[in-house]
Amino acid sequence: MRDIAGKYLVAARSLGARGRLLLTKVVLPGAAPAVLGGLRYSVAIAWMTAVGAEMLMAENGMGNLLVGGGMWSSRLQTRSDPAVIIVGVLALAAAGWAMDLAARFVTARLTRWAR
């Protein structure tokens, strides 16, 4: 909210905006692009953190699937399947892309005036 231009606050106050009106018509719209940009960034960091933690510590999940390669075990052998790893990476990429697309859509929808 510190990045909002001071002239917008001064102009709104000089026109009589106070309290809730100042917040909803000047401060929130002025801060929305930065807040929603932070949302996109936090979604990406959340994905990386979740998959990384699963790679290190989880007994099941996408991270464990990628590290273990699907570890198919039978009585005679234990082997991993590269196709499982590739499909897992593609599934993670698709889910991350879809969440970023959703965040971009929300940002574009809420900040139409900022273009």
How would you characterize this protein structure?
This protein has 115 residues and is mainly alpha-helical. 73% of the residues lie in helices and 3% in strands. It has helices spanning 6-14, 19-57, 62-68, 82-110; strands spanning 72-73, 78-79. Strands 1-2 form a two-stranded antiparallel sheet. Strand 1 and strand 2 form a beta hairpin. Helix 2 runs antiparallel to helix 4 (82-110). The mean pLDDT is 81.
Topology of helices and strands:
Elements: H1 6-14, H2 19-57, H3 62-68, E1 72-73, E2 78-79, H4 82-110
Antiparallel strand pairs: 1-2
Structural class: mainly alpha
Report the mean per-residue pLDDT as an integer: 81
Helix residue percentage = over 70%
Strand percentage, roughly? under 5%
Low-pLDDT regions:
none
Q: Widest sheet: strand order?
A: 1-2
Give the count of helical stretches.
4
- Largest sheet, described in full? 2 strands, antiparallel
* Distance between the ends: 19 Å
User: Total number of β-strand segments?
Assistant: 2
User: What is the CA-atom radius of gyration, in angstroms?
Assistant: 23 Å
Looking at the structure, what is the overall shape? rod-shaped
Helix and strand sequence: HHHEEH
